[in-house]
Amino acid sequence: MGVWNFKGGSIWSEKGFIPNKSTRISVTQEDDRDIHLSESSVIVPGLVDFHCHLWAPGAEIGVTDKQYLSSGVTTVGDAGTFGYDGWEEANRYWANSPLTVRSWLSALPEGLTNHPNPNPTKPENISLDRIVEVASLADDRLLGIKIRLGQVDITTDRSLLRLAREAADRTDLRMMVHLTETKLDIEEVTQYFNKGDILTHPFQGRDGNVLNTGGKVKKEFIAAVERGIVLDIGHGRKHFNWNVFYKCLAEGIKPDTISTDLTSASWRKYPVYNMSYIISKMIVGGLSRDEAFRTVLVTAPKLLGIDDFTFTPNNLVVLDSTSTETAFPDVDGETVLGNIHYQPKHLIFNGIPDIESVSSWK
């Protein structure tokens, strides 16, 4: 047993980042060490990815828990990888994960276990009773009902919205709605939302986006935000556009949660790569450092039902930012350059340190 003493950099606190004089943590099978951090380094209790897809048997789309840990992520919200045909088994599997896992139940019985899915279950063949049964018997690791608009047609999307609203109401849970590529207008989509429901992919630039034909943010979307819907980045490979993001920032609309929507196909590949890359992208895009990390370290845990996401005696993550100019492309070809790029430098999980740089984890 040894003690590692981290000196310098900044450390997360209730007030945001403050200068770090000395942070000590016990580690197993290591000698005592003093580790001097650069001025750009930040110390956090771990990263929270509010929207991702986590591996479990039957879901090849998912990223493994070891991969998430290697990027400094210790807590995740799986966004509907499983529907009622597989969620209970996946939930039992995730209960033994080293990660803290919460999840959404897809309204599709198959979820995303067959992705891409050319023939998703039709709404009329989805059992609302089975959704309600699974959700009602679930433990607190289930967050709500997830639907994915834009896969088939307008009629299907309307049916899914009605289904999700009724299921959420009957189970007293929230709903999460995937926006990208729906032909429905944002006003119609958000009519189904209650305060606290999650709109994911709001800053995408494809069908269903929140700008009008004149390139302005639709007033109906602004009104929905003012009503209290929650905006989740859900970056992914198709769901983030710089122009839409900047137009929203100009109207005072910012993401409530920063998340990756990572899958096995996008893990460590641009424009997503990993969680710390997406955080860096949002800071380069205009959020302050404290704003960006607050969405990850405060808002996301609360939405996941984790009220006390703070430092423990056993967990600590150090992110270091390079000053080298880095390219941050959106999904539609526009690139923003910035000199902030956080990457995991040290990770201590359950008192066990990895190697000096976690970049070697695969």
From TrEMBL:
Leader sequence residues: none
Superkingdom of source: Bacteria
InterPro entries documented for this protein: Amidohydro-rel, Deacetylase_Atu3266-like, Metal_Hydrolase
Residue span, Amidohydrolase-related domain: 42-261
One Pfam match: Amidohydro_1
Protein name: Amidohydrolase family protein
Organism taxonomic ancestry: Bacteria, Bacillati, Bacillota, Bacilli, Bacillales
